[in-house]
Design goal:
Elements lengths: L1 H32 L1 H10 L8 E5 L1 H6 L2 H6 L4 E3 L7 H14 L6 E6 L13 H6 L11 H4 L1 H12 L1 H4 L2 E3 L2 E3 L17 H5 L2 H13 L2 E6 L15 E4 L5 E6 L15 E3 L2 E2 L1 H16 L10
Parallel strand pairs: 1-2, 1-3, 3-6, 6-8
Antiparallel strand pairs: 4-5, 7-8, 9-10
Helix pairs in contact: 5-11
Length: 298
């Protein structure tokens, strides 16, 4: 019996040591190769950033808004959006940024999609949660379980050239992958109350109001079957204490007329780099051309 207990103890120690080593190696690999880890490290270690515009959102925004193109157009920008980010995560990121850096942005754009995303999730994106100041680590933070999706990305990079050629510039994830959209337009209407009742959009509006930052919310374009037939806007969103945001329905089929459904998507309503360039050019025209919202004070 004692021999069995000794063997069991030895096996347990071996298993724990092996797990720690494997998880440590996995964490080092993704820390230095995963796009979102690289972005997160970069955004926490800027040297006196002077970004005029910050983009918040999930992977839809991460692929859609070309902050390099915005910067070339004279609007110095960074795309903070990450895969799987909730609106609560976006709130945490903005609060962190304003706490860490003296220079605040002039504009914040929250780019999300009411047809494809939920705004009431309380979870925080794993990479952000893992690297947050004051985060208390538990067994839920074991890397191979917490970041299992990053392991799948490593496999895709190993076997698919288009994934290896994806890169990040100014926080914008640029993909050359092309996946045609062959869906057809339905009868969906834009769900404005979902935006008006979103707690963390209201909290972001509160931060922006306190800091004198212009806050805009956009409903991002999606594939044809997920687009709506409502007007582009703008619409006024009003939250507690009269905190406000200006909302644009860019998932309107009218606005999405510029999209080439065969060439501009990389899959699951994510723009590839070609679609992102076109969409960002449309955004620049809408937001920052002469007489638009971004030029009101100029």
């Amino acid at each position: 019996m004692k021999a069995f207990i000794r063997k069991l103890g030895f096996f347990t120690l071996f298993f724990l040591a092996f797990s720690i080593i494997i998880n440590g190696i996995f964490l080092v690999i993704i820390f230095n190769s995963d796009w979102d880890f690289i972005k997160r490290r970069e955004s926490l270690n800027f040297q006196n950033p002077d970004y005029e515009l910050l983009v918040l959102g999930s992977s839809l925004a991460e692929y859609a808004i070309d902050s390099e193109l915005l910067t070339e157009a004279g609007i110095h920008s960074y795309n903070l959006a990450l895969v799987g980010s909730s609106v609560k995560t976006n709130y945490v990121q903005l609060r962190e940024y304003l706490h860490n850096y003296e220079n605040k942005p002039k504009y914040v754009i929250l780019a999300i999609n009411s047809y494809l995303e939920r705004f009431d999730q309380e979870g925080i994106q794993p990479v952000v949660e893992f690297t947050m100041e004051g985060h208390k680590y538990t067994l839920k933070d074991v890397p191979m379980t917490k970041f299992n999706w990053a392991g799948m990305e490593l496999i895709k990079k190993a076997f698919r050239k288009e994934y290896r050629q994806t890169y990040v510039s100014y926080g914008h994830k640029k993909s050359i992958r092309i996946e045609p959209d062959r869906s057809e337009l339905g009868n969906a209407e834009m769900n404005l109350p979902e935006y008006e009742n979103a707690k963390y959009i209201g909290k972001i509006a509160g931060i922006c109001n306190d800091q004198g930052i212009e806050f805009y919310v956009i409903d991002l374009p999606a594939v044809t079957e997920s687009q709506n037939r409502s007007e582009i806007g703008p619409y006024d969103l009003v939250y507690n204490n009269s905190d406000t945001a200006e909302f644009y329905n860019l998932n309107s089929n009218e606005f999405c007329d510029f999209i080439d459904p065969v060439k501009d998507w990389s899959g699951m309503s994510h723009f590839n780099k070609y679609g992102a360039e076109k969409f960002t050019a449309e955004m620049i025209e809408l937001f920052f051309s002469e007489g638009s919202i971004g030029s009101k004070e100029n």
